[in-house]
């Protein structure tokens, strides 16, 4: 098959981006401008910026969903040389409202029946599902639970947890969370964030597009985008020390300044 990567690929979540520009149509204006950065395997990266800064465009260009120039290396191989099926089956994107298939929960997290129930239940536990429901809960979700079309019989938070479990089962080395904490309650969000911190392997790279700063203030690094350009990229602690810095301005405006600073300092 053309564009088929080596069998071992990807062995790590290492991501190198060189001079990435992107647009929404072949003759449209660029929405990303010459982005270059490196994310080491296993790092947790937050991406922030005001509306229209290019956060979603960045995730779309990493998955080759929009026209782009420049080179993206995922575990050492330029992604443009890899066929789209292979690329997208090795990167997991959890969108704001994940779509699910109609059928059982088991089919949703293991569509090709490649894993046993113990593995699938471990993934659900790691993703945080069981900490949201008690053993005696009448409506307790399990592998045989029937999922209606699009997942409409589940809450957005439950759908995100199932999408995370699917990523754990797939053993994706690169996980992109286009974060929708605005759509889920604080308890569910806290469970998902705890799962992401403690349950992913040390070689899994996590990129979180943040709508709430609490989600990413303990990340290894934060990338701040503005008008399609990287204006800051460093640890939260360093960025908060920057006079006139953009992350610092976002934190100062947030109404939760002291808590966010404490999170950054404790990491």
TrEMBL record:
Gene3D superfamilies: P-loop containing nucleotide triphosphate hydrolases. Keywords: ATP-binding, Nucleotide-binding. It comes from the Eukaryota. The keyword ATP-binding applies. PROSITE patterns: ABC_TRANSPORTER_2. Residues 15-252 form the ABC transporter domain. InterPro entries: AAA+_ATPase, ABC_transporter-like_ATP-bd, ABC_transporter_C-like, P-loop_NTPase. The keyword Amino-acid biosynthesis does not apply. It holds the Pfam family ABC_tran. This is ABC transporter domain-containing protein.
